[in-house]
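ok so I'm stuck.
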Amino acid sequence: VGHPLFDTPYFLTSLEPEGAVQAKARGPLPYYLHRIGLPAPEPRTSPFFDPAWYLRQYPAVAEALAAGTWRCALQHYLCNDRPGEFDPLPQFSEQFYLGQNPGVAQTVERGERRNGYAHFLAFGAMEMRAPAAAIDRRWYAAQPRVRDDLEHGRAAHPVEHWLRIGRDLGLPIAPPSEERPTEGQAHT
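replied:
not stuck anymore, here's the structure
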C-alpha cells in the first residue's frame, strides 16, 4: 500500500468485475486516474475514504467537481486548502479528534500534519485514539470475533476491522446505550 487512501487490493475488490480486469491489465493507479475522468461514480480506493459519502456530505465539493475544479473527491480531500474542515468518512470527525487530542491539534496548527486524520492514519489508530464520539474502539476490540481477527492479522486495528469486516457483518461499533457508562460512572 503506497498510501493509506489508495490501497490497491481494496481498490481492485471495489470495482465491478470488468473494471477489475482492466485495472489489473493497465495497472491500478493508471486505471484509477483514467476512471476519475469518466462520467461514472468514483470508486473507493480504501476503506479509509468514502467518496460517495463525501460528496453527499459536502455538496459544494460535488458542485466543484461538476464544474471541473477538481477531478475527484479524493483529490479534493487530499489537496484542498482547508483540510481541517472536511471529514473523510462518517466514522471520523476531524473536530472531535482534534478536540480529544490537543497535542495533535498543536502539530496540525504548526503544519507538521495536514490534519487530524493524517495523524490518525499514521499513529492514532494504532494508539487506540477515538476517531469519533460514536465509536468505542476499546469495546469493539474486546468482542471475541474482533479480538480473534486482530490477533490473526486480519486487520491492524479496531477501526480498520470495522471498516473492512465488521460493518459488512453488521457488528456494532459501540455497546448498546444501556451498556454505556454514564458520565459519572466514566469518571470513577
